[in-house]
Amino acid sequence: MPYARLSSYYFFHFGALGALVPYWGPYLLERGFAPAAIGVLMAILMGTKVLAPNVWGVLADRAGERMPIVRLGALLALVCVLPVFWADGFWAMALVMAAFSFFWNAPLPLMEAVTLNHLGSRTHRYASVRVWGSIGFIVAVLLLGWGQERAGSRVVPLALLALFAGVWLACLLIPDRARSHGEHAQLRLRRLLVRPEILAFLAACLLMQASHGAYYAFYSIHLEAKGYGDSAVGALWALGVGIEVLVFVNMHRLLTRFGARRMLLASLALAVLRWLLIGAFVELVAVQLLAQGLHAATFGTFHAAAIHLVHHYFPGPTQGRGQALYNSVSFGLGGAIGSLIAGSLWAGAGPLATFAAASGLAGLGLIAALRVDRERRY
Known about the structure:
The protein has a single domain, classed as MFS general substrate transporter like domains (Growth Hormone, Chain: A). The protein contains 17 helices and no strands.
């Protein structure tokens, strides 16, 4: 079990997310992009997750090898981020972001499958590896908040370049781990996708991530407009992920006690509350601390429970494509839909209406999750 090497990949991958999510919107705003354009550009980051993981997943499942394809994606992401320093105008920036995010997003589901195969029968221990992604996110958010206050937003693409380099170097050190061949050898993905509980699960994942669209695209802008400084913004982001770390550390106990379905339902219910708190009470620091604490549920427990269900729903030769489908439907399609909705509402309807819409999306996800298989306990 190459724990340190697997953990290093998650550290740098989600460290890059810590550079993009809180700071890319303000970076684009400083470079002169309008809120509607920022919504579209942030949707591109999410939208590439629709196609990229599925392309990489099909290639890897057919080849029977994952790590060579993961390493190629990491290298191409590093190369494609370089032009961001010279991209001028909406279309140039859109092209650069589409290119680097495609190759950055593509390998993650394959890494999830590799990690779960290394874990073998101990899949409930997945969170002890994934927790290093949350730690990487925290480190990036705090350091960039400090650096941006002193040097401005130009440090954001530099940090992203360094983190992409870290992702590529980490990939070089991770050994592959093939899937086991056996009772699922003849299983086909299309046979799984007609099962109502799997369709309900994917719908819940899509709606949960769509509800995060306003948060990822505009939360930092929302805070800064109300007088929060860069360090305070970074600290609030870090707080949310810091509590998420505690959840990941204890996730194997939570899954054993409550089961994945109950954790999905609880996470979606808390997401409904969280977005309303952010939209309506941004001036109250105590309320924002509470809302950020709920990130442990809306992302941490939800994602860990979802990964657990994906591993059971998509066994054997469907593993890579199953993980890719989960990522593309939720973080890709759901994230893109959420960003587009938020971008269209922000300037006209305002922050409160935008986060209320996010709360509504989470509520729809809760309804969908009620259809997730209630007879089995994962």
